[in-house]
Amino acid sequence: MPLQLDLCGIAKGYAVDRMVNVLRQHGVRHALAALDGELRALGDQASGAPWAVAVEHPEAGRRAVHGVIELEELAVATSGDYRRYLEVGDTRIAHTMNPRRCAPVNNAVASVTVLAPSCMLADAWATALLVAGPGEGMAMAQRRGLDVLFLLRRPTGWAEVGLGRFGTSADRSRLADHAR
């Protein structure tokens, strides 16, 4: 089988950034550009309100909202293992590969959501932090000062760990208020 390379770890974010650039060139001041789980806000809504964007709950097959974030001149990307995977017996095999192990990602991280000035950066960081796992990923995010939300699988249920804009109690409660 020939080697295949999938650039979705940055390509979709790059494409969203290009869409925003084209919109700006045509004088658009209010837009929300999106491609799958990557979004970028161009300004705010015409009403002046920020764009409300849902963070999906990572339970496979559920398609429920975990929380809502507000965007204005900001990009968001989420990477996770809950939408694209293969089941072999009782084992779920994620679509994202860990290049250090030459194997699919297999850790407690169900999803990582990153806010950044560009969608390509948010997309790349979300994928990298998913691959790195909870400990190393959180340390990387702290060193870089990233705005990141980790949703983790625990034996007793789900855990949420956030940094930056996701790390304040106000943001956690705003997310929790919408998580039903």
From TrEMBL:
Entry's Gene3D superfamilies? ApbE-like domains
Indicate yes or no for the key word Lipoprotein: yes
Enzyme class of the recorded protein, top EC level? transferase
- GO molecular function annotation: metal ion binding; transferase activity
Enzyme Commission number: 2.7.1.180
* Cofactors required: Mg(2+)
Q: Which reaction does it catalyse?
A: L-threonyl-[protein] + FAD = FMN-L-threonyl-[protein] + AMP + H(+)
**Keywords (A to Z) from UniProt:** FAD, Flavoprotein, Lipoprotein, Magnesium, Metal-binding, Transferase
What is the name of the protein in this document? Answer: FAD:protein FMN transferase
